[in-house]
Amino acid sequence: LEVWFHGIIWAVSLVCAVYPIPLGLYNPAWNICWIEAVPMGCLPSGQYGEDATCTKADNAWKHAIFFTIFPVWISLFLSFAFLFMIFLTVRQNEAKMSKYAGSVVVMVSNDGDLYDSTSSHGNRVNRKRSLRVANQALFYLFVFTVCFTPDTINCVMYYMFNIWYFSFDFFTYTLLPLQGFCNFLVFCRNRQMKTRAGSVARRVFFCKAAPPSRKVSSGDRTSLDRNSNSGGGG
User: Fold this and answer.
1) The whole model's pTM is what?
2) Is pLDDT of 175 > 90?
3) How many CB atoms lie under 10 A from the CB of residue 104?
């Protein structure tokens, strides 16, 4: 399945990158090359009719709106949909497993607690883990949404209403590259920092570290084995 996802992503990216070339849509836009009419800031015929002033790539703004908005928000929508489907599948599997009482299996939670995986407490721990994973994925999607929403607003303002503010444009294209750094912060939320610099960085950026795991001693194992032999037959 992962191979298919990579193939679809690369195929869509290549099509979107190559499509504007034969149409002559790539032109100078300030200090970058982007989908832009010539001369920059000209009046397109689709909006101004006979008063249009574009000499090349007329109505390029329609293509710019399409390639700026639709791929981003379609991928975001699909990410939310897939996350919801995965979460429902995991919860359904947990509900099915809770109906069966098998042999006693002693496990250690992330908090260092010992629990029977077939008991109600074990089920609660499993649900906590599922929610923790779901919350982590939601944080990644939240970062994605926050970083790309200003860019969408900026593009709609510029291409559809011919409104442009340097300060907002600067903010937009400063925020976009920060998505990687914000993803790093999300990644650090439930990680135990092993270095002093990592611990300081976690405290500075309010990242939450997972509690250290507790090893099961030989005495705990003996008592657990004794309890499982006395009352845990399945």
Assistant:
1) 0.68
2) yes
3) 19
